[in-house]
Amino acid sequence: MNPLKANGVPQTNGEGGDPVTLFEVVRMGKSAMQSVVDDWIESYKQDRDIALLDLINFFIQCSGCKGTVRIEMFRNMQNAEIIRKMTEEFDEDSGDYPLTMPGPLWKKFRYNFCEFICVLIRQCQYSIIYDEYLMDTVISLLTGLSDSQVRAFRHTSTLAAMKLMTALVNVALNLSIHQDNTQRQYEAERNKMAGKRANEKLELLLQKRKELQENQDEIENMMNSIFKGIFVHRYRDAIAEIRAICIEEIGVWMKMYSDAFLNDSYLKYVGWTLHDRQGEVRLKCLKALQNLYTNRELFPKLELFTNRFKDRIVSMTLDKEYDVAVEAIRLITLILQGSEDALSNEDCENVYHLVYSAHRPVAVAAGEFLHRKLFSRHDPQAEEELAKRRGRSSPNGNLLRMLVLFFLESELHEHAAYLVDSLWESSQELLKDWECMTELLLEEPVQGEEVLSDRQESSLIEVMVCTIRQAAEAHPPVGRGTGKRVLTAKERKTQIDDKNKLTEHFIMALPMLLSKYQADSEKVANLLQIPMFFDLDVYSAGRMEKHLDALLKQIRLVVEKHIETDVLEACSKTYSILCSEEYTIMNRVDIARSQLIDEITDRFTHSVEDLLQEAEEADDDDIYNVLSTLKRLTAFHNAHDLTRWDLFGSCYRLLKAGIEQGAMPEQIAVQALQCSHYSILWQLVKITEGTPSKEDLVALRRVVKSFLAVCQQCLSNVNTPVKEQAFMLLCDLLMVFSHQLVSGGREGLEALVFNPDSTLQNELLTFILDHVFIDQDDENQSDEEDEANKIEALHKRRNLLAAFSKLIIYDIVDMPAAADIFKHYMKYYNDYGDIIKETLSKTRQSDKILCAKTLILSLQQLFNELHQDQGPTLDRTSHTRQRHQGVGRQTHTPTHLHLDQIKTREAVATLDGIEFAFKYQNPHGAEFPPPNLAFLEVLSEFSSKLLRQDKKTVHSYLEKFMSESMSERREDVWLPLISYRNSLLTGGEDGDRMSVTSGASSKTSSIRSKKGRTPIHKSKRIEGGSVSHTETYTEEESSVEASWLRGNDSLQTPGALTTPQLTSTVLRENPRQAADTHLPDHDSEPGSENDYVHNRGLMEDDAEPIFEDVMMSSRGQLEDMNEEFEDTMVIDLPPSRNRRERAELRPDFFDSALFKNVLKINIF
Question: How many other C-beta atoms are found inside a 10 Å radius of the C-beta of residue 361?
Fold first, then answer.
């Protein structure tokens, strides 16, 4: 193949138009890379200059440059001149180049590009690479390109150089193997008896050994040139992808040729880069280390590195990039597998708690670590024999005890589902051992086993229920994952098998467990969740009705023994599941349920009669009898239709008696309200599902009307729980029985529609203002229980506000009532900001004009409150005034509400509020501003949202209220009028704009302009031979530019290799930045470069990229650093094991003294 003419101009195939340049061949990928390289080698043998020119243009074109190096340039110009010339040929309009272009074609190109370099070296390894021409030219070119300020050149050449280095490392490894084999053959021949020894063969072996040694020396020189000329600079390049390439490849070298590269001299680069500010670079570091720690034979060489960088790796388990955190945990797990003593207890504890992480990959990785550390059996056979001797069916008893102990010590008892999910992939055998779990709970401990405490039993039951749920549902708990994914056929089969297995086991075990723990409400509530995961067909298919009867009997005993809400709801839900019509056991369960409800209802009816008869003379037993039976019925009424028992009548009598006598216990009132509510909803369900008669509708309307009246009266109850319950039920029923009830073809239900009158609306609004918008008591903030109570109280208040807001949104309560809510937006933003903003958004969608009027009303209310607090003279810096302006700014900014500006034009006339501002005249005279004039300052917040023609309309309306003297006023008291008038004239005719000097205004404007500044685009330009490549920097990125210049030294280049002529890209120091620089902290963390630990920690949200420019050193600086690094970092391949003695041990490059005195590295 000879794609270039002698003058370097590409040829084209006139017949088929096939690609003829190396770049085109590699880009298309139609030819086998082996044949492409063989063709090039053949071309090189014919005319090496032309072939090399083709290779040079290949690298230039792979960088995206349209220029072509001609033969005369190649022969007469230096590399730096050629690169400068090619830089001028770059496309000005695009910053893309092949390695960054999207799409499968360019992704394949990257792979082909790397493969071409590897195949080229592999095919040339026995002859051409030693001709002192090819490799010298290529390495010199790549070194020059890697120092270019043009990102495309730097990125492409670095990738090529690193792949070239990897190929050379493979060649060096092969040479080492051949040397060992030759040495072995030589020793074997030399040890033969003199008569049998072949001298000619010895001479041939000696000659071959010498040749191999010479080749190895040449390869060492090539690798030294690439490592010191490219790697040591580019591993800290400004571009994260370039740094990642370097770290990825050095990891390959250390794994491929560990005898030469797996030592402290190279590991330190990976260790230092663990502190990189870009996640993709840290990720490459961890994956490179994982490849090393996977091989346990390499652990002795990694021991010093582990000791120095272990703390950093452990801290990366909390990395803000989840992918990095996952790989850090996996690396810690590999370290644990290789050496139990490498990690301290504190290190392990830092990983343990991550099993509760909301990010599932992190949690699963931590679960794998936890399994390896605590739950893996070291000698399974011995443990099984021990379990059999103790009479246990499973050897997992001790592991389950340890799991429970871990769960208790973690003190996150509400997160058992997260713990189980984290361990599910690594410890399924343990977590699915339900026989062992029930054995621990039901049977007495044998000799050598400790008795489970009450807390341990509760925790084991909770964990067991979570494992059952995980097996039956086959998806992570809430908060983990993005939703239910489609199971594969294998996963579906496993799910079915697990469900059958747990059903068959717990059908028999659950009644026994309930019998043992029926007095413990917490344990029973957990155990009663198990039936919802049963395959209920097993009861009839396996003729296990007797176990069903045993379960129903135990549930009945639990209902009779407990009045806790969670236990009763669990029993009710279990009955509901067992009563499903699709199962044949439904009739048997329905009979048992009806018998239970009959008994409870009879007791409830008699208890109510006794309580009402005794009235104020009722004792605690009477109250308890009513409350206990009512709580049971309420819990069951939630999931079951109990209307045939007519519970509403008894509950209504209790409520009326409480209102009339004022002595009803609050718990009875709350339960009676809730039970009545359920009864009404079940009646509505019956009516909507069937064809109701007029009498049915009238009867239900009468019931609803009477209940709403009772709830309205309860709003004035002295007991807060009663008031809150009544309010919530009022809101719910008004929603259910609103005008939307007749939608969807249900016009026959028109008689059931209720519209709240103004009195009820006012009472609901008053309740919200009195019970929601209140300040919490800030005392005892440190008390955990007090904090928990405050969070619970806030949750209740949010529910109250949300319930009322729904009434406003669906036009059940008049929209002006929302004005009293909108005005609290800024003050209570942290507590209710999301609810209020969503309410405003929804109401605006339904009626823009009315919403605008409501918003103006809320702003006027705020203004009047401010006026009352401060009087006629308003403090412009007051918190209340800022909140006033904030309400207008935040609630009406289109970016908050995602509204189209054109569609809201009809609301313009109602938003000005001008009439309110001029509503009253100043009693001191016309020369004084109206009392409400300051309201115009609030209106100015909306001016920028108006269209140009609307601004003119509003301005004309403003002029009607302005007298001629007002237009001439320039005092500060008239500033609201001046600023508002100017805001309306902005973007229009500015000739009449009123002028005023306001420092505060200009300051605010300056701040806003800074915050809204767009990224600065620096275009490529050529001035006097210097080139700056196309880059896009944000202000945040450029702000750390000075951090590169905080030290006087730069990274020392190892070895005494002659420095190639490079194009310097060192940054010029900004005088302002130089004034802000400071010396690095010499007490930096051992094991990391001063430049990394000198700055902010990795976990900070606002962390900036660690590298912001190319950071290549000038030639003079390189020479200085060469002196310091003399004989410390020259690549020296290990001697043949059979020929040389072991080389002298290298110095510890992690030694703190050497770190401070020799490696004076200051990137920041």
Answer: 16
